[in-house]
């Protein structure tokens, strides 16, 4: 470090221009690709104003989005907090697309632009491109053209059917967004624009050639006995592929009342929900990865003498703000900071790989002391989500540093119990409890379509698998059921069944008031 | 080298459409909130941006949410200081947040969330179903300003209005149809004649030819004279029509009694009423003048500051204010050009014998000059019960009462507390003048 030259600085002062941005980008790219071995989508960096950042916030971070009042509500909310100074805007926003789009705020200083470029354009970008969840569940190349289609399609529907009709469908679909993803089976890939175009043409053809005569054909008379009804039911379940966890998918395919355009709207909402599902499962890893990458890169550039000391101080101050973790009894405590936890774990992996202690060798025999920390990290980034990452890589050292403890809260007790803490006996328990809390699938209510009597009263039967006795909030539950009824067209009932005992805990329906 | 794109110059307000959708959705609730706010104490603030709590009724987005008080939960928290495994801690009070519990629900942060409506949005919601009384609109149509507007072509008019293009088009068509000889033909024949005449030897054949040509030339010249290049029938003039314009000028007279009997409370109430009226008129007229007249036992036109804030004492002669107003109208605001509105606020005190004079002035002159005249009497809260809406009351009230029955553009009402102002205002300007209560 004594050899550090002072002439090779990438930038001086705090103002940026496109020349310095580009110079910094090239230097960062060199470190990222050649020294860290990252593999990224081509980058597209866009400079935006704070107002545009608020816009992007409210449309769930997508550059293109259809219009809906809930985005207006979110915008008002974000704007309020921003104007009041409750919270600053993010320095950047990055979109999982190919090319990878990164928004840089114009207010950032040059040093911050460099940090943000390293963070988003290389950290997040590498994660999007390599993590197995994103590779399997999202199609970065197709999402922008799909959003373009979605926006235009919604607009077209509004023209043809009126704002209110479209809004009603979107409201109901938004209510089911959490239940609109495939968790267990692999999703079908986003079909290409051409295939969708063909499907739409077919639809339009059907609309044009529709003949009312077919409706007047006499129905085959039904003669039913109980055994046959039983057989029917199992047949039906097979045909409808029940039980079905993806409520939006089920309604889109099997709802009895929806028009083709309404089904297409459900599909749009479902595709967007599915697109964001991997991001929800990898918060800690995604942010940890990006933070680790920017930290490594700016330190490397500093060592090379390409970032001045003043700028380095600014960057370190910003970095430590990002990874600040208040204690649980602190007024500022908002939950565990995913940046802090992810960054700490990844730094710890680096330490274990290069200078392990005896304890690390016991806990992580597979990579302790292997020396190649970058390879270990790349492997972790590619093959894990938050839950499995924490379960495998959270070390006792990090648990001690965060002083993590596990609290158990049973609604029947008048107290909460400290189940385990960061000590020899508690490490495993704390670790698996923390990992569980990041399992999005397990923490969301598990609601599935069980049965539907298409020939009888057409009631849609849903089942809520009640885990650990956690019920649903009744007000929002009933309101959401009404939305399902709106999409289904007939009554909807929901039964809560305890996952362990199989006992029915509650039942409610849109037909009558639940007791 | 990455792809840099500068988006800063892209159109702003990408989410404006979303905002409007949201406002429409929450319209009823926002309206109620604004009215409550204004009713409570802040009429002056109507003319500004407003913070309103996030609407909850129309704008909820329900999803399946785990209920808080059920089942078994596990939390992992950082920053242990003194706990060891097996410790039991009392549960924090519901909603206590902070210690022990997990992250606060999103519901909590929504409570203190204020949603900012711009001034225009506030006024839209605030005055939504108010309208100037119908008779005022009628008289608006009769107003007398005209603006010339192009309306086709005419065959008569002043030379300055000649439409050259049209005229020449007609002339060209006429010349074609009547086969007016062209200048070129004329020149050709004239040239030939000149050529023949120039020749020294003139043969008989040539002489004949020359004769033919001369008569031909004469025929052509005659025809050209008969069929002129531009004939009066070709001429077209631009036609202008006088388009009546609705009169967009308004003047509002604010008349207030500032005698000793009007305390701070009374003046404050009167001021709120005037502010509201001012705002309302401002939205309906492009330009509005305001004239402030205050009176004790003599009336004077003053500026806004003096009108509302400075004090003066003395007796009360209401008719002086009315006379001052009539004088100013005759002087500066001829009623055929201006829409005149007047609002008078008083506590009803008047010198003995003057009230009848006021009523006469009102009946004979002012109601004829004004589009609308409102009298607001500010009374003590305790008096509300005594007077209510009966005809009893001060001398001025009783005198005005007689006018109220006769003139449809005169309204009178009583205000006792700030909360009354907005309802009273709404009653005065409700869309259906027929619904006006006359008990």
Write the layout of secondary structure elements.
The complex is a heterodimer of chains A (515) and B (439).
Chain A: H1 18-35, E1 43-48, H2 50-58, H3 69-84, E2 92-95, E3 100-105, H4 110-130, H5 132-137, H6 143-161, H7 163-175, H8 193-209, H9 226-240, H10 247-254, H11 260-281, H12 283-303, H13 309-322, H14 338-354, H15 358-363, H16 373-383, H17 386-393, H18 396-402, E4 405-410, E5 415-421, H19 427-437, H20 440-443, E6 446-452, E7 460-466, H21 474-488, E8 492-498, E9 504-509
Parallel strand pairs in A: 1-3, 7-8
Antiparallel strand pairs in A: 2-3, 4-5, 6-7, 8-9
Helix pairs in contact in A: 1-4, 1-12, 2-3, 4-12, 6-7, 6-11, 7-11, 7-21, 10-11, 12-13, 12-14, 14-16, 17-19
Chain B: E1 3-6, H1 16-25, H2 27-40, E2 50-53, E3 72-77, E4 88-90, H3 106-111, E5 114-117, H4 119-126, H5 134-141, E6 145-154, H6 164-177, H7 183-198, H8 204-226, E7 237-245, E8 249-257, H9 264-284, E9 287-295, E10 299-302, H10 304-309, H11 318-332, E11 339-346, H12 354-369, E12 372-378, H13 381-387, H14 395-406, E13 410-415, H15 418-429
Parallel strand pairs in B: 8-9, 8-11, 11-12, 12-13
Antiparallel strand pairs in B: 2-5, 6-7, 9-10
Helix pairs in contact in B: 2-15, 7-8, 9-15, 11-12, 12-14
Whole-Å distance between the termini of chain B?
A: 82 Å
Order of helical and strand elements of chain A = HEHHEEHHHHHHHHHHHHHHHEEHHEEHEE
Secondary-structure element sequence of chain B?
EHHEEEHEHHEHHHEEHEEHHEHEHHEH
* CATH H-level homologous superfamily name of the domain at 246-435 in chain B: von Willebrand factor, type A domain
How far do the termini of chain A sit from each other?
73 Å
Q: Proportion of β residues of chain A? A: 5-15%
What would you note in describing this structure?
Chain A is α/β, with parallel strands linked by helices and 515 residues long. Chain A has helices at 18-35, 50-58, 69-84, 110-130, 132-137, 143-161, 163-175, 193-209, 226-240, 247-254, 260-281, 283-303, 309-322, 338-354, 358-363, 373-383, 386-393, 396-402, 427-437, 440-443, 474-488, and strands spanning 43-48, 92-95, 100-105, 405-410, 415-421, 446-452, 460-466, 492-498, 504-509. Among the domains of chain A are: 18-131 and 282-316, no CATH class; 336-441, no CATH class; 445-509, no CATH class. In chain A, strands 6-7-8-9 form a four-stranded mixed beta sheet. The longest helix of chain A is centred in the middle third of the chain and has 22 residues, at 260-281. Chain B is of the alpha/beta class. Among the domains of chain B are: 159-239, no CATH class; 246-435, von Willebrand factor, type A domain (Rossmann fold, 3-Layer(aba) Sandwich). Chain B has 15 helices and 13 strands. In chain B, the strands form three sheets. A six-stranded mixed beta sheet of chain B has the order 10-9-8-11-12-13, sandwiched between helices. In chain B, strands 2-5 form a two-stranded antiparallel sheet. In chain B, α9 links the parallel β8 (249-257) and β9 (287-295). At the A-B interface, α1, β1, α2, α3 and α7 of A face β1, α1, β3, β4 and β5 of B. β1 (43-48) of chain A pairs parallel with β1 of chain B.
